[in-house]
């Protein structure tokens, strides 16, 4: 009899725990673009900061609930500075999609509240690693005018453009550091004006633009489509 009472009490407490457990709030997001093909609908979702897979799942569940008619849904998560017109995996923070039941693998453990299986790949660095990169203080920027600190999620580096107050030409200098504070590249790009201000960063014509604290990178043969766009401090 005592065992039965204890069991019932445990069941009651378990029920109370789950009944009182508040649902996690969905992080803030905005949708900027929806791209449809015959087999897939891809939604560009802008987020304010770096998130965990669980937080991205909360957003995905809300998007799917609000878009119930979409059967095959994929999501690109973009950080501040990322643009809808970028190309390549390193141009957004993470990519995710809901998986058909027939394609579910044992490694697929994430599900939304409705039981839909969710698969996500986070390309960007997590907040802890970003904090380390942004805190680096190489001697090369001492007493310099730093124009921003830009996290390159593809190369896992921080890009720091700066000018020298003592340089009458006001040339731009760019260094790129890894997490050990080692400089992996250092350039003094050539300034060009093709109707807009840009800096050539390679002999074959690759270039960057720097405007409103956003660093955008272009390949010479990229037809004007950026392969990366980053907001300072992100």
Write a concise keyword list for the protein shown above.
5-stranded antiparallel beta sheet; elongated; 6-stranded mixed beta sheet; single chain; alpha+beta; 2 domains; 234 residues
Structure, described:
The protein has 234 residues and is of the alpha+beta class. It has two domains: 24-124, no CATH class; 128-231, no CATH class. Helix content is 18%, strand content 33%. The protein is built from three helices and 16 strands. The chain has helices at 2-20, 53-66, 127-134, and strands spanning 29-36, 41-47, 73-78, 94-98, 110-111, 117-122, 145-146, 150-152, 157-163, 173-177, 183-187, 190-193, 197-200, 207-211, 214-218, 228-231. The strands form three sheets. The protein has a six-stranded mixed β-sheet with strand order 1-2-3-4-6-5, with helices on one face. β13 (197-200) and β14 form a beta hairpin. It is elongated, with a radius of gyration of 23 Å. The termini are far apart. The model is unreliable at 7-21 (pLDDT under 50).
Q: What count of structural domains? A: 2
Low-confidence stretches: 7-21
Radius of gyration: 23 Å
Bulk shape: elongated
Q: Strand sequence of the main sheet, in spatial order? A: 1-2-3-4-6-5
Q: Mean pLDDT, as a whole number?
A: 86
Major β-sheet, in short?
6 strands, mixed
Helicity range: 10-25%
> Which class best fits the helix and strand makeup?
alpha+beta
Protein name: Lipoprotein
Organism: Mucilaginibacter frigoritolerans
Keywords: Signal
Signal peptide: 1-19
Give a brief description.
Residues 1-19 form the signal peptide. The protein is of the alpha+beta class and 234 residues long.
């Amino acid at each position: 009899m005592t065992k039965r009472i204890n069991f019932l009490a445990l069941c009651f407490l378990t029920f109370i725990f789950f009944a009182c457990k508040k649902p996690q709030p969905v992080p803030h997001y905005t949708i900027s673009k929806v791209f449809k093909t015959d087999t897939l609908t891809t939604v560009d979702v802008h987020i304010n900061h770096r998130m965990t897979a669980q937080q991205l799942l909360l957003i995905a569940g809300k998007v799917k609930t609000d878009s119930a008619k979409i059967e095959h849904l994929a999501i690109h998560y973009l950080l501040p500075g990322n643009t809808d017109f970028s190309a390549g995996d390193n141009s957004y923070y993470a990519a995710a999609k809901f998986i058909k039941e027939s394609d579910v693998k044992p490694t697929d453990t994430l599900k939304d509240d409705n039981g839909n299986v969710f698969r996500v790949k986070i390309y960007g660095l997590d907040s802890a690693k970003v904090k380390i990169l942004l805190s680096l203080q190489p001697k090369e920027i001492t007493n310099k005018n730093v124009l921003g600190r830009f996290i390159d999620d593809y190369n896992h580096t921080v890009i720091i453009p700066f000018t020298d107050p003592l340089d009458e030409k006001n040339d731009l200098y760019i260094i790129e550091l890894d997490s050990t504070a080692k400089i992996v590249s250092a350039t003094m790009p050539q300034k060009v004006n093709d109707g807009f201000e840009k800096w050539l960063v390679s002999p074959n014509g690759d270039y960057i633009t720097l405007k409103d604290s956003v660093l955008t990178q272009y390949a010479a043969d990229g037809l004007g489509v950026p392969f990366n766009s980053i907001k300072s401090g992100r």
